[in-house]
Design goal:
This protein has 143 residues and is an alpha+beta fold. 35% of the residues lie in helices and 22% in strands.
């Protein structure tokens, strides 16, 4: 299975090319490694952390940035099963993060503190999906 941890250049450029001046919601699907994989020279390389523990470190270190840019976790759920889709896509974290606009998201990912904290995410994540969505009208029917 191919792992997806960081965006590739083409995907990031496509993200940046979209309208930045409206709220965005990012669907996050995350599967953790059984054991975190930090670079050998990192202080936590031999700490024996699980992927979930490393991801919690990422959350703790990035929380002040999330608050500062006006973002929030809109929804969080506990994965149970996939009804339609690949049966091997099992997720440990499923949540939707709301950002006031794409400028705020880009501010977050370029913040020096965030860039330092992302090492925990990279150590924690086996694979993930990060899907940008624009909020639309909520209704009572599909389509």
């Amino acid at each position: 299975m191919t792992s997806f941890v960081d965006p590739d250049r083409v995907q990031f450029e496509a993200f940046k090319g979209l309208n930045r001046d409206h709220p965005i919601e990012m669907l996050n699907l995350v599967r953790f490694r059984a054991k975190a994989e930090y670079p050998v020279d990192h202080a936590l390389a031999d700490a024996g952390l699980t992927g979930a523990q490393a991801y919690r470190n990422y959350g703790v270190e990035t929380a002040p940035i999330i608050e500062r840019i006006g973002a929030s976790i809109l929804w969080r759920g506990a994965f149970q099963t996939t009804l339609i889709g690949p049966s091997d896509e099992v997720w440990d974290e499923v949540f939707i993060a709301r950002y006031p606009n794409a400028h705020a998201f880009l501010e977050m990912v370029t913040d020096p503190i965030y860039r330092s904290a992302v090492i925990h995410r990279q150590a924690a994540v086996e694979t993930s999906r990060l899907i940008r969505c624009a909020p639309t009208k909520i209704g009572t029917s599909f389509g």
